[in-house]
């Protein structure tokens, strides 16, 4: 055996660290691809609770489940019934020392579409511009508050007129 090595003496060839890392990266990417699918889909897979039956392959398992793909609709906001501003009576009351305040605000009320409205003066002390309303006009009172920029809303009690929304002013609107 002069100068020749036998097969048994040659040793084992190991891959370089770069090749080993590349192989691991490819395997990890393949697993991630298999788990997440093809990506970009806006569908969800929802398992059915009922067992499935196939005409080409009979299933004997009572616990088998099938999956179905459901495309989710875009979210939508619920629609709110429009408020008939002309059918609701609005009273505007001046509880301030500013002459003509109720009449000035009444112009804004009518311009916003609340045409069934009137104004007057009250000598009762109030602390802030407030809209008083009966329970049945809660949505309308909120809309009137938005129209006028009044954030104080108060559902009235049994003494509150049940046929109207009342706007009480202690200062000019901003």
From TrEMBL:
Organism: Nocardioides baekrokdamisoli
Region (Disordered): 50-76
Transmembrane region(s): 12-35
Entry keywords, A to Z: Membrane, Transmembrane, Transmembrane helix
InterPro entries from the UniProt entry: LytR/CpsA/Psr_C
Taxonomy of the source species: Bacteria, Bacillati, Actinomycetota, Actinomycetes, Propionibacteriales
Superkingdom, taxonomy of origin: Bacteria
Positions of the LytR/CpsA/Psr regulator C-terminal domain: 88-169
Entry protein name: LytR/CpsA/Psr regulator C-terminal domain-containing protein
Any one Pfam family match given in the protein's UniProt record, by short name: LytR_C
